[in-house]
Amino acid sequence: MSQHIHNSINYIEFPVTNMEESKKFYSVVFNWEFTDYSPSYSGIKKNNGDEGEIGGLSLQDEPPTRGGPLIVLYSKDLEKTLEDVKRAGAKIIKDIFEFPGGKRFHFTDPSGNELAVWTIT
Predict the structure, then answer these.
(1) How many C-alpha atoms does 108 have within 13 Å on its Cβ side?
(2) Single pTM value for the model
(3) 93-101 CB contacts, 8 Å cutoff, 24+ apart
(4) d(CA 95, CA 87)
(5) Mean pLDDT, range 60-64, rounded to an integer
(6) What CATH code would you report for 12-120?
């Protein structure tokens, strides 16, 4: 069972314009699982499901705007994750680049949300 930590980020909601396409993308690339609560909302569970829900997909009429907070995911194999993201049809915004202690890349999901994936070097 997950612990709720005071003043920590507890849940992330992604605005999406196509629920099925978004669930397929995140399932294929990151192996996330979903719980449908309605046609316009689906909860996100990590692939092991141990931590309960970590977020949700919320169906919206308009695509999300870029420039807000950046969600950064971790990968043990950054190059494989980059290939999986490309193969799933995401747009690469910034190819792999190095920064002190790691490397990362940025992409937009099928609805236009910008995310990044990083790894330790």
Answers:
(1) 15
(2) 0.89
(3) none
(4) 15
(5) 94
(6) 3.10.180.10
7-18 pLDDT, tens digit per residue, is 888 899 999 999
Q: Report how far residue 70's alpha carbon sits from residue 45's, in angstroms, rounded to the nearest whole number.
A: 20
The pairs formed by 3-12 with CB atoms below 8 angstroms and a separation of 24 or more are 11/53, 11/54, 11/55, 11/56, 12/54, 12/55, 12/56, 12/71
d(CA 25, CA 111): 10
- Cα–Cα distance for residue pair 50/17, rounded to 1 Å: 28
Residue 32: pLDDT above 50? yes
What length is written for the chain? 121
- What's the sign of the alpha-carbon dihedral 87, 112, 19, 76? positive
